[in-house]
Amino acid sequence: MPTRRSTVRTTTVHRSTTPSSSARRSSVRRAVLAVAVVALLAACSGDGGGGPGPTPSATTTTDAPSGSPGTTTPPPEPSPEPGLVVVPEVRVDVAEVATGLAAPWGLAALADGTLLVSLRDERALVVVDPATGAVEPVTGPGADDLRDGTVARGESGLLGVAVGPEDGAAPGEVFVHRTAPGGNEVLRGTLTGRELSALTPLVQGIPAASTHDGGRLAFGPDGFLYVTTGDAQQRGAAQDPGALAGKVLRVTVDGAPAPGNPDPASPVWSLGHRNVQGVAWDVTGRMLASEFGQDTFDELNVVVPGGNYGWPEVEGTGGAGAGFVDPVTTWATSDASPSGLAVTREAAYLAGLRGQALWRVPFASADGGASADAFGAPQALLTDRGRLRAVLVDPATPLGDDGSAALYVLTNNTDGRGEPRDGDDRLLRVTVTPAG
């Protein structure tokens, strides 16, 4: 299959002052709106509509017609301290790996270098070979269970997928998040070749609805499985510590509450979430999460154990005085609808659905941090690909000391809210390098 490549470059605009936390949050929102140059649309009730993505700034330079990044104010100058890398400007190279994927949702790497992709509405798993673009269906009793026992309605269906780390307690095991007749649930199975064994339920009874189902799975650096759940249209459940809706859960590979949870008897790691669809960790161990807002702000949060992120009492910033954790970055809901999340040494990358962009949020601190000052202003990349659902760091490409990285990105134009083009949906490989 021919490989289509394109190259784009983002250029940041330097400023001479360092704002306070509140000023930075305000400036981030103004910068995002200036870069996007789009009118605010109607309230986002779920993944958001298929409206236009951000429009590039006039100062953007483009090396090929297929990329349209935006430009915003930069983070502070790079710190000489070890740890995170601050890279204010990046060059992006894009290559198509696979096409013709039907409403892809989850994305995970297998030990043999191939990629496991979940197809939400078809209730199926496929394996993609990045070297050839070949797409193979997963078969076996587990695949039959996913097809026959999964309910695909609206935003529900076969959602997140994760693979047990090779150095963990369940190396190579496959974990899936799906909607069953009795609610959302997490299952585990063994993939041998392309055959999936019978599935074992780990976490069941997670509230489900046609929207706000969360659905992301990811293994943390501690070896435990993190599960994101939406409020499933039950707004009050997000504040109920006894409910599984509107939470980030942390469990063992057998589904038990993980040691060290805020409540040892509960899988709940954090609460007060509306609809988290992305979690990832940076090299300092800081946990980040991308979250859909409702009427005003989408969020990037630093997640801490036991943290309450305010929904439905607070959307966006302003909840710290009431004991809630404020987001570190926000977007208008028409600009983002952030789903998948990946983190490199120099930035967080969020896959935007309604915003139709890969949002890059550069780090502004070499040693992490949980305040807005630890993050630079967002930049919009890949604004010509339509809706984006998932992003994953390529495990076969080491993160460069200069901030370079390779990412896999899933488009999501066939999910019922986009405008599909010939060949959609696609798996893209995106290489990020410092511009110079």
Protein model, in words:
Residues 72-81 have a biased composition (Pro residues). Residues 1-27, 46-83 are annotated as: Disordered. Residues 56-71 have a biased composition (Low complexity). There is one protein chain. This protein is mainly beta and 436 residues long. The protein has a single domain, classed as TolB, C-terminal domain (Neuraminidase). The chain is 6% helix and 33% strand. The chain is built from two helices and 27 strands. It has helices at residues 21-36, 141-149; strands at 5-9, 90-98, 104-109, 115-119, 124-128, 135-137, 158-163, 174-180, 183-189, 191-192, 195-196, 200-206, 217-219, 225-228, 247-251, 268-271, 276-281, 287-291, 297-303, 329-332, 338-343, 347-352, 358-362, 379-381, 388-393, 405-411, 427-434. Strand 4 (115-119) and strand 5 form a beta hairpin. The radius of gyration is 20 Å and the shape is globular. The model is unreliable at 7-45 and 49-81 (pLDDT under 50).
Spell out the key features of this protein:
436 residues, Neuraminidase, five-stranded antiparallel β-sheet, 6% helix, single chain, globular, mainly beta
